[in-house]
Specification:
With 612 residues, the protein is mainly beta. It has one domain: TonB-dependent receptor, beta-barrel domain (Maltoporin, Chain A, Beta Barrel). It is 5% helix and 59% strand. The chain starts with 6 loop residues before the first helix and ends with a strand. It comes from Acinetobacter pecorum.
Length: 612
């Protein structure tokens, strides 16, 4: 790396940021808190108050996203207890997310509507996605195939980007342990409904070891990228064009051998909206997502491209009712040394909503025509009822599906005779306003997945994972079950806040009569602190129980993160973070024998932002 890191300077910066307060006048910064007035778009394809959604949806808020440019996307997702993030090492290493016990490729990941799940693994390349211009992350829990098609069995994680609201520019730099730094430069223009935005960012780290034993080297990661956005937002029409590209290199362990790969992802997203009348709205989108991996130490590569064209209209035919009707055409293309295949699919969907002051309903159906796996019909219905002035209850039921990925069929352990996975989910919940400004929620859920694609041992199943290794193949399981519940609580009083969440989920492979891999039964998160326009100090705890892996359990763990910021004036902001304060080296994936993959340990950092 080209930058020299001085630990004493970092300690001094942290002490300064943690120990200093200010009476400087309030800036234009607003400290955002998730509330019943929070607007979400994922559940209905248009802006909706979260209190009206007949499903459980959570928000990773702007205040969390703005704490640290260095905070990697996997660490951001850990703040939601319904998501289990499994990473084979630290920064940039392979990452899977399990939402409510469903698999990583059963969770659809979007960025402003653009599908980021690849054609090969079926999951998104979470470690390589940049967070620079995100406004919030929405986590819709439960099936969502009616609106989004394949992959949305467990739910949808959508990255909602910022739209410029005023003209300005900024420069941010943050430096941390392990020779880690990130710098961002950006400029915004907004005037009379016309806006433009440009961002550039670079990040580098020497990294950390990925194994708990027999691993004396660090695995580095670097990434750079840029993005641009231009749009027009008027009452009767709107259009926007987004472009972003990120590229870099990550070192990793390939079955114990040192390896390195270059990556590049690119997003193009063209959207338009017209309102022919006050009661009608027509939206259109053309998008492309490219995700390329090229091995440095060999000639192998994996290139994935997803192209989508979509048009949908919304008609508010009464003051309380609307209908949404749409069609999506998708082409997914994958290329490797041994494979060149593309698959086309077309989805047709319709959704009806009814909404009054006390009742919200949502019913929809989708027909998806996949040229390789045939047609699938899914449906979903939900209702939320304001039982009392401070009590809201909801329930929903929905089906979903996921087509086999190209990795499922042709990669290591592949099986080209696999069938698509199909699911049915049930959920009910309650949200309650309590005295002392407390908002609490509870929900229970149950999901059955037929033809679940799972890796099954077919030979040498008693191997010791040192001298003899079991042989696995992907097969459809007759049925898998996920049963669980969630509890949430939020308290806000002036500048003070506490947010807590607990998730319990029990998974079952009915064929093997065992739990599914890497799904801890219990997850708990809590964050607390104070935040205002001048300064803030907060702490967050993430805790997981043990989880089953191929031959050994993965132990549970707990970690604590700290954040502080100080707006010296409207132009200068200082901030500091300590991720994993206790430097806990918790195990994430079992490798072989006594060897596990471990997280990256502590990352203490400090930074500054200049706004103009």
């Amino acid at each position: 790396m080209s930058i020299q890191f001085q630990p004493t300077a970092l300690v001094g910066a942290i002490a300064l940021a943690l120990g200093t307060t200010s009476s400087v006048h309030a800036t234009e910064q607003k400290v955002a808190k998730a509330s019943l007035d929070t607007i979400v778009v994922t559940a209905t394809r248009s802006g909706e108050k979260i209190e009206n959604v007949p499903a459980r949806i959570s928000i990773i808020e702007p205040a969390i996203l703005e704490q640290s440019p260095l905070k990697a996307l996997p660490d951001l997702l850990k703040t939601d207890p319904s998501i289990n993030v499994v990473q084979s090492g630290g920064y940039g290493q392979q990452t899977s997310i399990f939402l409510r016990g469903t698999n990583s490729n059963q969770v659809l990941v979007l960025r402003d509507g653009v599908r980021l799940n690849t054609a090969t693994t079926g999951a998104a390349s979470i470690p390589f996605l940049d967070t620079t211009d995100l406004k919030q992350i929405e986590v819709l829990k439960g099936p969502a195939s009616v609106l989004y098609g394949t992959d949305a069995i467990g739910g949808v994680v959508q990255f909602v980007t910022k739209t410029p609201e005023k003209t300005g520019a900024f420069v941010t730099g943050e430096i941390g342990e392990n020779q880690t730094y990130k710098s961002i430069i950006g400029a915004d223009l907004a005037e009379n409904g016309v806006y433009a935005q440009i961002r550039g960012q670079v990040i580098e780290t020497d990294g950390t070891p990925v194994f708990n034993i027999n691993d004396n080297r660090n695995y580095s990661y670097d990434q750079k990228g840029y993005s641009a956005k231009f749009g027009i937002e008027k009452e009767r029409y709107a259009t926007s064009l987004d472009y972003s590209q990120n590229s870099g290199n990550v070192q990793y362990s390939n079955w114990g051998a040192f390896s390195s790969q270059d990556f590049q992802n690119e997003i193009v997203n063209l959207k338009g909206r017209i309102n022919p009348t006050q009661a009608t709205e027509i939206n259109a989108r053309l998008s492309q997502f490219k995700d390329d991996l090229d091995q440095v130490t060999s000639s192998s590569f994996v290139h994935s491209t997803t192209q989508e064209a979509e048009i949908y209209g919304k008609w508010n035919f009464t003051a309380a009712q609307n209908v949404l009707l749409g069609i999506t055409q998708r082409n997914t293309d994958a290329k490797t040394q041994d494979l060149d295949e593309d698959i086309n699919s077309t989805g047709y969907y319709i959704q009806h909503q009814y909404q009054t002051n006390s009742l919200s309903t949502q019913v929809g159906v989708r027909i998806e025509d996949n040229e390789k796996f045939g047609s699938h019909t899914v449906a979903q219905g939900g209702i939320r009822y304001q039982l009392l002035p401070n009590t809201s209850i909801y329930t929903n039921i929905g089906s979903a599906f996921k087509a086999p990925t190209l990795n499922d069929m042709y990669a290591f352990g592949g099986n080209d005779q696999l069938k698509p996975e199909e699911s049915i989910s049930y959920e009910m919940g309650i949200d309650q306003k309590l005295p002392l400004n407390i908002l609490a929620g509870a929900s229970v859920f149950y999901t059955e997945v037929d033809n679940l694609i799972n890796s099954i041992c077919v030979s040498t199943c008693n191997g010791d994972w040192v001298n003899t290794f079991p042989i696995y193949q992907n097969q459809n399981i007759d049925q898998a079950k996920m049963t669980g519940g969630e509890l949430t609580a939020q308290w806000v009083k002036d500048q003070f806040f506490i947010n807590a969440g607990y998730t319990y989920v029990k998974t079952e492979d009915t064929k093997q009569n065992s739990e599914l891999l890497r799904r801890p039964r219990q997850s708990f998160t809590v964050s607390t602190g104070l935040q205002n326009a001048d300064y803030g100090l907060s702490a967050a705890l993430v805790a997981k129980s043990k989880a089953k892996d191929f031959s050994r359990d993965i132990p549970g763990y707990a970690r604590v993160d700290l954040n502080a910021y100080w707006n010296i004036n409207p132009t200068v902001k200082l901030f500091t973070n300590i991720e994993n304060v206790g430097d806990v080296k918790y195990k994430t994936v079992h490798s072989a024998g006594d060897q596990y993959y471990v997280n990256g340990g502590r990352l203490a950092s400090a930074g500054v932002t200049f706004k103009y």
